[in-house]
Amino acid sequence: MSDQEIVDFSGNEIDVRWDGRLCIHIGECGQAEGDLFVGGRKPWCMPDKVTRAEVREIVERCPSGALSYTDKDGMPETAPAANIAMVVYNGPLYLTGELQIEGAGEDMPGVRRRAALCRCGASKNKPFCDNSHLEVKFEDFGAVGEKGPGLTATGGPLSVKPLKNGPLRLDGNLSIRAATGRDAWQGDNAFLCRCGASSNKPFCDGSHRAAGFKSE
């Protein structure tokens, strides 16, 4: 793998981009069947080794948005039918949907559909996860107790605003999925903890103030 922050891999029908600023090495790409991604090979990603459809499917597995593609037929990645926030066991928040993350640059196309956001408060790349939860031994098993007010529609834009020295504010149709895979909470407005100190995770309970959480 390259040490560069952003690496583009060109193919005849589709190009792949890897963004090292977002990668948390989950391995969905490297574990995929076929020869699109092969560790130790140079280049390690070769889009012409599989079909265009396989490139799209494998890239869209990446939970952090570190992988994205440009289909030369002009077919963009489509937004999922529902916006989902999955609370990862002892880990980050995986978001999928039509994401509008405040502060995400135009050079981060992957996070328009998929993102891994920090929950432990220790990331050096806030609001994105950088695996600091492993170093600080963050512990939260991902249970969700609240049901929320419910939804009258699904999908559509989901605004994600990291509040200064505070939680993530999410506005838009949203389902929160517990780490067990259970669809637990539904609503169109949520404040989610990103300091790691809330007693009501994944929701904010104001603990960031007592904890002295700093978002920068």
Automatic annotation (TrEMBL):
SMART domains: ZnF_CDGSH. Keywords: 2Fe-2S, Iron, Iron-sulfur, Metal-binding. Pfam families: Fer4_19 (PF06902), zf-CDGSH (PF09360). One of its GO terms (molecular function) is 2 iron, 2 sulfur cluster binding. The keyword Chloroplast does not apply. Gene3D superfamilies: CDGSH iron-sulfur domain, mitoNEET-type (3.40.5.90). Residues 98-139, 177-214 form the Iron-binding zinc finger CDGSH type domain. InterPro entries: CISD, Divergent_4Fe-4S_mono-cluster, FeS-contain_CDGSH-typ, MitoNEET_CISD. This is Putative Fe-S cluster protein YjdI. It comes from Thiobaca trueperi.
